[in-house]
Design goal:
Residues 1-40 are annotated as: Disordered. This is Acyl-coenzyme A thioesterase THEM4. By secondary structure, the chain is α+β, with helices and mostly antiparallel strands. The chain has one domain (26-197): Roll (Thiol Ester Dehydrase, Chain A), CATH 3.10.129.10. The chain has helices at 93-112, 177-182, 185-193; strands spanning 43-44, 65-68, 73-79, 85-87, 90-91, 116-125, 134-145, 148-157, 163-173. The strands form 2 sheets. A 7-stranded antiparallel beta sheet has the order 1-2-3-7-8-9-6, covered by helices on one side. A two-stranded antiparallel ribbon has the order 4-5. The chain binds octanoyl-coenzyme A. Octanoyl-coenzyme A binds at residues 47, 53, 101-102, 105-106, 109, 117-120, 146-148, 170, 172, 174, 202.
Length: 207
Amino acid sequence: MRVRGHNGARAYSSVVSRTPAPWPPVPTELPEPHPDAPAAGTDLPPHYAFCFGCGDKQGDGLHLRAKVGGEHTIRSRFTVTEAHQGAPGLAHGGLLACAFDEALGTTVGHLLRKPAVTGKLETDFLLPVPVGTTLVIDAHLDGVAGRKVYASAEGRLGADGPVAVRARALFVVVELKHFLDNGREADLRAVAADPSLLGSRPVELNP
Ligand SMILES: CCCCCCCC(=O)SCCNC(=O)CCNC(=O)[C@H](O)C(C)(C)COP(=O)(O)OP(=O)(O)OC[C@H]1O[C@@H](n2cnc3c(N)ncnc32)[C@H](O)[C@@H]1OP(=O)(O)O
């Protein structure tokens, strides 16, 4: 269907399709997890105490918790609270996207043990997610092409519930310099003074 946008331009319906594009979008390899990657069944502690996705020191954060699943998968859970609402009694879509960013980033970081940041994140919201729901997110490492790492995930309303959200993301492997050059100095100093703020380290920070 062709739809005209408010400025007369041909709008989204012909551009944004529900038919998924090929994934990963480029040829990739699926590497073995890093030899030091945590074993299946390992509970992963928060990677940074002030992370909005997983940190214990973020009162209204998502407090996402992750456990290593199969060779290329990590299962994460987070419970939607009143602080996460976008409409009465329903989770905000942006916060759900945040949960997937976290779950996917955790998967890439822990399985490859390389620092990587999100370059692109796309989400399909299939069902509303009510306050009180525990969203169970199964994320999968899909492939690597140079510095580009592709991962995807689906989130269910409870472990056996229907799929409510799907996401795909591109992560780009970066040097630790990325964080040192761009992070706020006060926060970097705080981490240097108290390394326990970095609870689980998907990468070695002391070269
Ligand atoms: C355990 C940890 C859990 C963490 C979970 C949370 C993760 C996060 O939220 S990270 C924070 C959000 N993300 C960011 O702040 C990243 C900001 N962006 C950047 O710093 C840069 O743009 C960065 C690093 C992604 C890429 O820059 P740069 O290093 O110069 O690489 P660049 O050459 O531009 O891109 C590398 C490749 O990726 C591709 N690429 C980069 N961005 C995109 C994109 N949006 N779409 C498609 N391809 C892209 C490039 O085309 C390039 O491909 P190729 O190698 O084939 O030429």
